[in-house]
Amino acid sequence: MLDDLIAAVGADHVVAGDDPSVADLCADEALGVPAGTPSYVVWPGDRDEVAAVVRAARAAGVSLTARGAGTGLSGAATPDDGAVLVAFARMDRILEIDPVDAVAVVQPGVSLADLDAAAGEHGLTYPVHPGETTASLGGTVATNAGGMRAVRYGVTRSHVLGLEAVLADGAVVRTGGKLVKVSSGYDLTQLLVGSEGTLALVTEVTVRLHPRLPVRRTVLAPFPDADALIAAVGRVVSSGLEPAVCEYLDGPTMRAVCAAADLSLGLPEDLVDADHLLVELAGRRQERVDEDAEELADVLGAAGARDVFDLPTGSARRLVEAREKAFWAVKAAGADEIVDLVVPRSSMAAFLSRARAAGDAHGSRVLGCGHAGDGNVHLAVFQPDPGLLEKTLHDVFAAGTALGGAVSGEHGVGRAKAHALAEFGDPVGLDVVRRLRAALDPDGVLNPGCALR
Amino acid sequence: MLDDLIAAVGADHVVAGDDPSVADLCADEALGVPAGTPSYVVWPGDRDEVAAVVRAARAAGVSLTARGAGTGLSGAATPDDGAVLVAFARMDRILEIDPVDAVAVVQPGVSLADLDAAAGEHGLTYPVHPGETTASLGGTVATNAGGMRAVRYGVTRSHVLGLEAVLADGAVVRTGGKLVKVSSGYDLTQLLVGSEGTLALVTEVTVRLHPRLPVRRTVLAPFPDADALIAAVGRVVSSGLEPAVCEYLDGPTMRAVCAAADLSLGLPEDLVDADHLLVELAGRRQERVDEDAEELADVLGAAGARDVFDLPTGSARRLVEAREKAFWAVKAAGADEIVDLVVPRSSMAAFLSRARAAGDAHGSRVLGCGHAGDGNVHLAVFQPDPGLLEKTLHDVFAAGTALGGAVSGEHGVGRAKAHALAEFGDPVGLDVVRRLRAALDPDGVLNPGCALR
Ligand SMILES: Cc1cc2nc3c(=O)[nH]c(=O)nc-3n(C[C@H](O)[C@H](O)[C@H](O)COP(=O)(O)OP(=O)(O)OC[C@H]3O[C@@H](n4cnc5c(N)ncnc54)[C@H](O)[C@@H]3O)c2cc1C
Ligand SMILES: Cc1cc2nc3c(=O)[nH]c(=O)nc-3n(C[C@H](O)[C@H](O)[C@H](O)COP(=O)(O)OP(=O)(O)OC[C@H]3O[C@@H](n4cnc5c(N)ncnc54)[C@H](O)[C@@H]3O)c2cc1C
């Protein structure tokens, strides 16, 4: 296989998997998934090289795992031992920003930050904005990444218009195009989005861009409890104010986030430990955003907010950024696992209380924040004992799915949540997934350790 | 099989396919697809009856075609001879309008009009609005219907959050839920949307609702030619004005539509035959919509509109409705086929001129209108000679796909466009579709005559 891999990408772009120089590439950011040791790491330079790599591995009976930026939180990019790790770092070109059709065509290794900056030169934005904007387009397509702005713009799935990808047999498929809609047979674009590198390796991505909104206003509203806060979220969403951000942070998370960012908001001390709702409005015209901010304050006040703070631009930006980095803050604080279940928006409060009860039952500490507008709850679980941690997580997944939720809203299944999906997912649906996977990858070469048990 | 079908749905709900009482059910509205003669038409009353019907047909080696309201324009609901036609008319209950989570849960036989009316009682709307609102939720899910409001709200795909469906083996799968986003394995909801009854029969649909916008303003702008009009569409979309409707009508279509609706807009005679752009703005506040209408008029004027008419509410509503019914108008005028290719928005003008040239080359008349904001061009082709009609259509599909387009933007492939998809679709993609279909329906019982050749 080594000869074939070298023939595929060149000797400069193949490194043995146990070489110390690639140690950092052998795991993503998932807290509970140990690094693997791939046979080789390869860096293809274009689509044909990706196809040649796939054929080489397949011929040798070896599996492949794709790696974007490795910021994933589910172990989806963590290679199984012996697999070929396909790193997309060299395929990082923005091929086209088309301001007329408001689309971009990029290679999978392009980062969200670079794409958004390039779009910005045309007054456009790519609004998929998970906490870590070093994430790659290929990785975000494979996880269907969300982030804070999904409440207004939708997740990755809403933005991907077309893909080029290499299938398990090395064939190249092209789906969609610069088309905002299509109804011409099964939507293979949508099937590949969220498939975590198990159906195809993505070699080109066409995404929709949006006009960049110049005006922003951000308010922070502490609530007496999560119930009141979640009820307020429903009212904000149904108000038609179309918030650009609608985030929940519990008191301890707020403290951790502000401390990590060295940010003081000057809140009265008795409010810091409250449950916080952070809402950003964005628009084209200052006077409308100002008017909407007043309406928002009224909605939040009527919904029981203890106060509504209009954040100055600098603090607002820093708080939003600090919230994006909440993962690092809770990781630094010693969190043992992070999960991101999604439940019906109105069930968030019930889920939070059941999740905390699950924590209490097993002596675990459970902190929460989340993309409240989407019903997507991010829980940090502190429990050093592996058995108790597993029990806590089990009960958390049980609570969320019993409320009509799913095991992940945006981080994906990966290796971290495959057992939870197997236990709590729809069994017929899982069987369908297995059949689809077998149809496209009969030998199981694409990320076989990922997503299914 | 008859005994099994009767056992499944009751004798009152099975009729022989050649019974005159069911003649109307044996075709949809596609102009070029002849009616089929099913063996039986059955009307299941619930999910379990659907599953029993599927098992009965499969056991007998007979295929099944689902039928919603039969308003489809691609022959997707037209049964193959001998198939069991599964009519969803009895499964027409709105199970839940949940204003807190802004979702609805409905049976597949519910019409768009009924769902939108029920949502309206809560200040909400289901904005999927193809020209024919008698269309059913099941049918619109299966075709991924679009319509005039897709430019703002997206197509059916953007709204379906969860499904219950019966697979080819009679098993019941549940996908998604009241969840605005999810990343927990392949998105089976999205795979089933647009699958035209070939992967599963949908028995329950969960969709997202939106706040109903109370204020509307509509303008009509005649342009000197399609090039200028299409360039204007790009500017309207990138303006951030978020039009609720953005429609193109050529002069003859405008005449036909107004005549069919007995509508006089009082346009100067020399403008009636121009290329028309119809734009509707919608919002929460009158003063903003008014201000936006002025901005829109400026954008259109700067883009070369010959004039910009602010339509009075009554005429605007009637014109929008008449445009929705354009299909009936051009059908009455004797159109022989209607196609709805989608191309990159900026390529619409090029596509229109190539499509007209194709018409000229074969002596066919080609009229155009379309959801301009989406790049979705609806062409009516007048050509009584079947051979010349086929040649014209062939060249039209060739022109659209050469511009990066697809054979259908919203009507689907069905029986009418299966050959076009086979010729102009991505061959690897078609092979993938075949493998997926075989994986879920190995015996080919679900609508086998549809979508693939
Ligand atoms: C601080 C922090 C905050 C975060 N916040 C959010 C958030 O708010 N919302 C959110 O959704 N996520 C968030 N994440 C998670 C992470 O950013 C996303 O999962 C992101 O999509 C991963 O992108 P990546 O390029 O790092 O992919 P990787 O981690 O490298 O890979 C992810 C998956 O994509 C596959 N893959 C990568 N490239 C390709 C390709 N070319 N073809 C096929 N498959 C490929 C991998 O095999 C793997 O299955 C956060 C992560 C961190 C560290
Ligand atoms: C005047 C007019 C204007 C139109 N304008 C538009 C427009 O602007 N945009 C647009 O997108 N369409 C438009 N259409 C087309 C049509 O309305 C859509 O295709 C609609 O989605 C069809 O819905 P239906 O219930 O009539 O489905 P049918 O025609 O009955 O069936 C369509 C497909 O759905 C399948 N199906 C039906 N029910 C189920 C089920 N329960 N489970 C699985 N599969 C099922 C059928 O097998 C078939 O494949 C128009 C049609 C007319 C007549």
UniProtKB/TrEMBL annotation, chains A, B:
Gene3D superfamilies in the record: 3.30.465.10, 3.30.70.2740, Vanillyl-alcohol Oxidase, Chain A, domain 4
GO terms, molecular function: FAD binding; oxidoreductase activity
Cofactor: FAD
Keywords: FAD, Flavoprotein, Oxidoreductase
Secretion signal span: none
Keyword Cytoplasm: no
Cited InterPro entries: FAD-bd_oxidored_4_C, FAD-bd_PCMH, FAD-bd_PCMH-like_sf, FAD-bd_PCMH_sub2, FAD-linked_Oxase-like_C, FAD-linked_OxidoTrans_Type4, Oxid_FAD_bind_N, Vanillyl_alc_oxidase_C-sub2
Residue ranges of domain FAD-binding PCMH-type in the record: 34-212
Any Pfam family: FAD-oxidase_C
Record bears the keyword Flavoprotein: yes
Top-level taxonomic group: Bacteria
Protein's UniProt name: Glycolate oxidase
Species this protein is from: Actinomycetospora succinea
